[in-house]
Amino acid sequence: MFECRVQADFSAAHFLKDYNGKCENLHGHNYKVYAHVRGDILNEGGMLLDFTKLKTALRASCKKMDHTNLNDMEIFNQNPSAERIAMFVYNDVISQLKEEKIDLSYYVGKKEAFLFAVDVFETETSRARYSIY
Q1: Predicted model pTM
Q2: Which whole-number Å values give the CA distances from 106 to 73, 78, 112, 120, in the listed order?
Q3: Which DSSP string do the residues of 88-133 spell out, in sequence order?
């Protein structure tokens, strides 16, 4: 099994509405986001996936959130947790790649490249991962 990973980042503000603590107040993070692709089959060039295509999709997804108040994005339902951000990025990256006719969706037993996971770091020590595996 091969695995590739690309990274992007963005800065944004948010607050957690149903949280009892300091994170219920508006604050910001410099998020780091990783997209992981896995598969057993390499293409003719010996690659699982062109890093540039994955990086372009990941950066575009992060750009949608950069320098925003994440609570203003309807998709997060007023609670933009790192977990929800990771799920948003995962689905958004797949959607973008499908538009380019690159299928990275996952199903059991697939041998070609698939998007395995998205990690969202709020800090160096705090990470949430979304994966459908």
Answers
A1: 0.91
A2: 26, 28, 9, 19
A3: HHHHHHHHHHHHTT------TT--S-EEEEEEEEEETTEEEEE---
